[in-house]
User: Fold this.
Amino acid sequence: MRVDEIGPRYGSRKKPKRVGRGTGGKGGKTAGRGTKGQYARNTVARGFEGGQMPLKQRVP
Assistant:
């Protein structure tokens, strides 16, 4: 047995879950995000703190 013949152990590499691909399958439609609210929609801006003054503006 050589080093180049060794592969990853079974179960150590998981395929990523593809969610939101139609209503029929597991993880379809809302893709585990719920139905409404900020996190169910597109993206949340980096550094956004829910209306609180962001850290980059608080620090002098």
The chain has a mean pLDDT of 86. The first helix runs from residue 55 to 58.
